[in-house]
Amino acid sequence: MDLLPILSTLRRHKTAACLIVLEIALTSTIVCNALHLISTRLDVLNHDSGLPEAELVVVNARPTGTGGDPEELTARDLQALRSLPGVKNVALVNQIVYGGSSNNSGAATERGPQARRLVAAHYAGGEDTLATLGLKLVAGRDFKPEEYLSGLRVGEQDNPVVGQAIINRALAEKLFPGRSAVGQAIYVYGESPSQVIGVVEQLPHPAPGKAAFDEGNAMLFPLRPTYRGGSYVLRTTPQQRDAVLKAASAALERNDASRIINRAQTVLEMRAAYYAQDRAMAWLLGGVCIALLVVTAFGIVGLASFWVQQRTRMIGTRRALGATRGQILRYFQAENFLLASAGIVLGMVGALALSLLLMKQYEMPRLPLAYLPIGALVLWALGQLAVWAPARRAAALPPVAALRS
Q1: How do the domains of the chain map onto residue ranges?
Q2: Cα–Cα distance for residue pair 316/305, rounded to 1 Å
Q3: Percent of the chain that is helix, strand, coil (3-state, to 5)
Q4: Cα distance between residue 143 and residue 379, in whole Å
Q5: What is the pLDDT of residue 281?
Q6: At 343, phi and psi to the nearest 5?
Q7: In the beta sheet, which residues pair with residue 106?
Q8: What is the value of pTM for the model shown?
Q9: pLDDT (tens digit, 9 = 90+) per residue, 289-309?
């Protein structure tokens, strides 16, 4: 098709053509970056903690006073919880994924303040922690019964000695690259080393993707927390989650009615609440993309309809000179393609500039270049669909009626 008549027509309608080009450019700039941000949010939402989340429930009990022996009451709690129907395993841990708290410590392979330390999530758990959380050992062994210590007593010591530790694979590969971590010493508690006795495949940070210290590193120590500083985690079957949750809360209240049950949730509920803002952000950005595309489509339809009306005599003349309906249709489609292409080129430049600004101001990841051709294809297709109806109306005009108008 000869482009000269199209370019000549566009020069006579510079304002309208520039407006539609700028609209497409703005849409391209925003949509490309919005789709990238949605993708990053979806990656966060699909994060795999490595835990059997569908089988876990969490119950927290907090005292209203300072009396009583917390260790003795914790032991009675654990005994009561393990006797509940449908409960596979029970453990008390100082923190749990999506729990809203984050305990981190530095781990080093050498003694002394000058040693290079890696920040890692610091877990403390009692018996059955690995079985309850579904942690899979890839090397070494679990803690032995005689290796567990009282978390309260260790916390009161100036120079505590915790002899054993289990770390996750991510921390093991960073501390001991190219060699086995089992049997190695790490320094977490002052000058006394802890021997790595096991490595688990995954042990997530309590605040995955959001904590400032989340580098994928985690370690577990054989320290029994009490109910005052930990969470009861119960593993059951998905079909029995709700029943176990109610029974567990009732059992803790029976042991000590003065306590307050300040959390009784499934881990799936905790995950949903934890990622609520990310989910809302993804929906919001999706709505912005759809709104911009709809507005752009209506702009193209309105402009094309206006130009069809303005060019009625031109269309009739071309039809009288032998132009077919297909040629008239392709004329408007080619015109829209040129406008869309100009807008897309400007939009790609704007998208990269906006991405650099977001990287600088908000530490967002760089916009992958793959989003640029995807955005271009979407806008080209949108432009052709939007111009289709006005172009068909123009092609359907009878030559005589067009010349009479």
Answers
A1: 4-46+276-404, 95-224
A2: 16
A3: 55, 15, 30
A4: 59
A5: 93
A6: -65, -35
A7: 119
A8: 0.83
A9: 999 999 998 988 888 787 777
